[in-house]
Amino acid sequence: MTERMTDRMELLARSVPELGLELNDGQLELFEVYYRELADWNQRMNLTSVIDYSEVQVKHFLDSLTLAPALGGGLAAGTRVVDVGAGAGFPGLPLKLACPDIHLSLVEATGKKADFLRHLVTALGLPDVAVYTGRAEELAHRPELRAGFDLSLARGVAKLPALLEYTLPFTRRGGRVAAWKRGAIERELDAAQRAMQILGGRLERIYPVKAPGLTDNRIVLTVEKIKATPGAYPRRPGMPAKQPL
Ligand code: SAH
To answer: Which of 53, 83, 150, 172 could cysteine-pair with 92, CB 3.0–4.6 Å?
Structure first.
């Protein structure tokens, strides 16, 4: 533990410049707090199987930040971001730590995970973060959330057709969705064509992640929102995954 404190988030600190980002000492300290809270809560509930100190820095923190090069830079101040299926906070919270002036909303269906997220937001002292407990299928119909975001994120949540049904309704026209994927995605992309069309999305970019330690064919895929999503979507809870568009 003492050892660890001396090389605080060193792996992360060394790697972020490759993404075109910088983290100051205060930000690295917050990532350290994030790690400690994650490790602590993970003993009592299953938040993540990746919990080794080095692995969390790379596979959770750095991986979350690969959005920056995928978009061609960090997130501008004031950008309204929603992370759908945030789980233990990835990718939304690392992005909030790296780009503190974004407005972040976290959507998480599991109450206990949402409890962790609320605890973490307090422990990190983060302003401008809202945590919603609930399913995207319901929350995306709330007038104050619908089409209310410039950027909707999802990592490890669903195959593309369902993922788009969860995220595009939250996204304003002219905004975009970013999805973290791994491996060959051609078939998944083909299968998502219909969902794109119905929900008002258009594939923007397939960005192959280049970052130290992330060598397993990770991709950040961005989808532009080109027209409004019809009011019928998302369908009722469970439907997007059970009967993909
Ligand atoms: N994004 C995190 C968690 C991935 S696990 C990460 O990359 O580490 C997927 C998470 O999405 C789970 O916590 C699950 O509860 C949540 N989830 C799945 N479907 C959802 C939905 N329709 N609405 C809200 N949350 C959902």
So the answer is: 83
Q: In what order do the strands lie in the sheet with 103-108?
A: 129-133, 103-108, 80-84, 149-155, 171-182, 218-225, 201-208
Rounded Cα gap, residues 185 and 190, in angstroms: 9
Sign of CA dihedral 158, 47, 82, 9: negative
pTM across the whole model: 0.96
For ligand 1, atom 13, name the residue with the nearest CA.
Answer: 87
Query: Which protein residue has the closest C-alpha to ligand 1 atom 3?
Result: 87
Mutate to test the pocket of ligand 1, among 83, 110, 157 (most ligand atoms within 8 A of CB): 157
Dihedral angle of Cα 187, 190, 194, 195, to the nearest 10 degrees: 60
pLDDT of residue 74: 85
Q: Which of 222, 67, 115 is nearest to 160 (CA)?
A: 222
* Average pLDDT per 10 consecutive residues for the chain, totaling 245 residues: 64 96 96 97 96 96 97 94 98 98 98 98 98 98 98 97 98 98 93 97 96 94 98 98 97
State in Å: Cα 211 to ligand 1 middle.
24
Dist. CA 25 → ligand 1 center (Å): 30
Please list the alpha-helical segments (H only) found in 174-229: 186-191, 193-199
Domains annotated on the chain, with CATH: 3-242 (3.40.50.150)
Tell me how crowded residue 33 is: count the other CB atoms within 10 A of its CB: 15
For the Cβ of 200 lying below 6 angstroms from any atom of ligand 1, the answer is no
